[in-house]
């Protein structure tokens, strides 16, 4: 069972598509958000959750005070789950804006004019490193000064190729999962 861990929508159960997603575990989300929250990087922010799947990362941010969240996933089952999950969270967190974009992450980044303070990139483990590098490159112009990007991958995956404009500063391992964090210059 996947659920929101904490905040205004804490314990809300999230709908998970039957296949094609790998929701971030409660343990990893709790660790990530404890770290981000302690640094004041969630409340009032604009968040993008790329390769959203269930939307768990973006919706956890909404539950913990993010002002707006964009959930991006090209799979129709994932987009449907994100819409249902966003509705459930918005019932418990009035005023938070959640937008579901049923399209590839790279296409979304190339077409939007929005900017973000916090971005989660949690693709299926079989997504090629070249795609992650292209997404990171397209993301840089969409980031505010001091924005944080979290890339979640398998521990067997290499560190992402960070483009100019993103400086890596943290790597944490949680069993099979590794989360890298990078920041834009302030």
TrEMBL record:
Q: Which domain of life is it from?
A: Bacteria
Q: Which UniProt keywords apply?
A: Methyltransferase, Transferase
What is one GO biological process annotated to this record? rRNA methylation
Q: Output the InterPro entries linked to this UniProt entry.
A: DNA_methylase_N6_adenine_CS, RNA_MeTrfase_RsmD, SAM-dependent_MTases_sf
Keyword DNA repair set for record: no
GO molecular function (one): methyltransferase activity
Pfam families in alphabetical order? Cons_hypoth95
Q: Does the keyword Transferase apply?
A: yes
PROSITE patterns membership: N6_MTASE
The name under which this protein is listed is: Methyltransferase
Q: What is the lineage of its organism?
A: Bacteria, Bacillati, Actinomycetota, Actinomycetes, Micrococcales
